[in-house]
Structures are given as structure tokens and as C-alpha cells.
Design brief:
Number of strands: 9
Order of helices and strands: HHEHHEEHHHHEHEEHEHEHE
Distance between the termini: 72 Å
CATH topology of the largest domain: Trna Endonuclease, Chain: A, domain 1
CATH architecture of the largest domain: 3-Layer(aba) Sandwich
Structural class: alpha+beta
Strand order of the largest sheet: 4-5-6-7-8-9
Number of helices: 12
Number of domains: 2
């Protein structure tokens, strides 16, 4: 009988919680087994800092069980790494970030040297300590709930674009700092939006100041059709509406938990209106905008 230490092994022969070191053999093994879905998961994690198991499930999988199994498989292959925040009772889902091979995959897809990505895995894992982790999680939850609704709409709508905070800062040169940008497409057109996810801590005057900055972009090509402000509760929403105004770009408000329950429902209240509507109600042909 051949001793185990001398037998031909694959990465799956190790105990469940052990992972092989990154080697040429492991990279070749991953290159033969990686799927387009795996690659897109890596790209999304790079763009949006992390994906939880629930978030990846909403975008890419038919069941939570399949999502958990595949993400763990990618974790064992050093494509992804992960962390889990501490909780007083119960447990948080795993948060997945890029590991060494995942960084190589993103760099190869983007056609750049991995050093150009400026991706620091240690910092990615240290997000477990970030005071903004809850906020960033809710932003990802917001968009992945739309993505999930898109997948079950039988082609009637889709989340065609989702830019993270960093990409938004780069695209609009830091002039505005939305939590994300999205575009929803239907057969008859599209509507795009900036997301401002309020955690209930910003003073009202700060909300109005944000709109002053957005107003300068109202006629710039590539700006959004809407600004969606979402709040932690109806009382906070009602108070914020006293200082919000349409700034050349239509502003609508809603409550975060309502969005999580039914992202395509009549949740959004335009400034100056008493009737809540769906974001998809505003789908139309793209506006003509003046070039920057």
C-alpha cells in the first residue's frame, strides 16, 4: 500500500479546513476547473470589496446550499479567503474576499499586472474590524436584492450595471460620493440611479449639501436619472424629506427594510409626490446629456 504522503493527491484530499499552499500545480488545477461564474464572483468581490454567502447566492446560485458549497470550494483552492464578524448570539454569514489565486484571476481578466490592482488581502480581511462594515454590507444587500429579483423576472428586467463606491468616486472624479450606481433595464428602456444609503446618523443639512453637489452633474453625460435615498425607518425618512429637493435630477426616498422584502415593489416616494412608485415605473429611453 502506497503511504499517503507519497500518493498522488489533489487539493480535495486534505482535511476540510486545511488549504494547500499556492503552487504552480494548484494554479494549473484551478485554471482547468474555474468557471465563468467563478470568474464573475471574483470580479464582483474586487469591485465591491466582498460578497457574503447570501449576496453571492442572490446573484449567481439557485440555492443557498449550492452557494455555500461553491464558495467553500473556491476558498479551499485559495481563490477566495474569508472572515466572519463576531456576534453576541447566532452567527453572521461568511464574508468572502480575494485570495492569491483570485487576485491573479482578476488581473488576467482585466489585462493588467496584479500589482496594478493594488489589492491588499490583509486589508481586505481586516474589514472585519471596520466601523463601516455594516454600512458596506447593506449597500451590497441593496444591489444584490435587485439582482435576485432580476434573475426571477423571466427577462422582464435586469440589473445591467452596478458600480461600487470606489468606481463611483473615480468615474465622477470624487465630486459626488454615492454608495453605488446602478442601471435597471427592461425591454422598453432603462433607468439609472445613484444610491445614498443613510444609516440614520447624518444631520439633515448634510443631506441637502449632497444634493447641491449632485446638481452640478444634472446635465453631464453619464450621470444618473435618479438619486435614491434609503433610510432605516419611516420616521427618519419623513424627517429627511423636509430638506431634500429635486436638484435637476429626480430624488426619491424609501425605507431599507421594505426594499429588502420587495425590491421591485412600490417603495419609492418622489420628492413633491404623495404616491409611492416602482423604480421600473420610470424606465424610459436614455436622456441626451451634454458632454463633460
Amino acid at each position: 500500500m502506497t503511504p499517503r504522503s507519497m500518493s498522488t493527491q489533489t487539493p480535495f484530499d486534505a482535511p476540510a479546513l486545511m488549504r494547500p499552499r499556492v503552487s504552480r500545480e494548484l494554479i494549473q488545477f484551478v485554471s482547468r476547473s474555474i468557471t465563468d461564474r467563478d470568474k464573475n464572483i471574483c470580479l464582483d468581490i474586487y469591485e465591491h470589496r466582498f460578497l457574503t454567502t447570501h449576496q453571492a447566492n442572490r446573484i449567481y446560485f439557485e440555492s443557498y446550499t449550492r452557494a455555500r458549497a461553491r464558495l467553500f470550494h473556491l476558498y479551499r483552492l485559495r481563490v477566495l479567503d474569508r472572515f466572519r464578524p463576531l456576534r453576541g448570539s447566532g452567527s453572521y454569514p461568511w464574508y468572502y474576499v480575494l485570495d492569491e489565486i483570485g487576485i491573479h484571476i482578476v488581473a488576467a481578466i482585466r489585462g493588467v499586472d496584479q500589482r496594478e490592482l493594488k489589492y491588499d488581502k490583509a486589508k481586505a480581511l481586516a474589514q472585519v474590524f471596520s466601523p463601516r462594515l455594516r454600512h458596506m454590507t447593506e449597500v451590497n444587500d441593496f444591489f444584490t436584492r435587485i439582482a435576485q429579483a432580476s434573475r426571477t423576472s423571466e427577462g422582464l428586467l435586469r440589473l445591467s450595471s452596478w458600480l461600487g463606491e470606489r468606481s463611483c468616486r473615480a468615474r465622477w472624479k470624487g465630486y459626488v460620493h454615492p454608495d453605488g450606481f446602478g442601471s435597471i433595464e427592461e425591454p422598453n428602456g432603462a433607468v439609472s440611479f445613484w444610491l445614498e444609503l443613510d444609516g440614520g446618523t447624518e444631520i439633515r443639512s448634510r443631506l441637502a449639501e449632497k444634493l447641491d453637489r449632485y446638481s452640478a452633474l444634472s446635465d453631464i453625460r453619464g450621470s444618473a436619472d435618479l438619486i435614491l435615498f434609503t433610510f432605516p425607518g419611516s420616521e427618519r425618512e419623513a424627517g429627511a424629506r423636509k430638506v431634500l429637493f429635486n436638484c435637476g435630477i429626480e430624488v426619491m426616498t424609501g425605507v431599507f427594510e421594505n426594499h429588502m422584502e420587495d425590491p421591485m415593489g412600490k417603495l419609492w416616494l418622489p420628492i413633491g409626490s404623495q404616491t409611492r412608485i416602482r423604480v421600473s415605473d420610470l424606465v424610459k429611453a436614455p436622456k441626451r446629456r451634454i458632454s463633460a
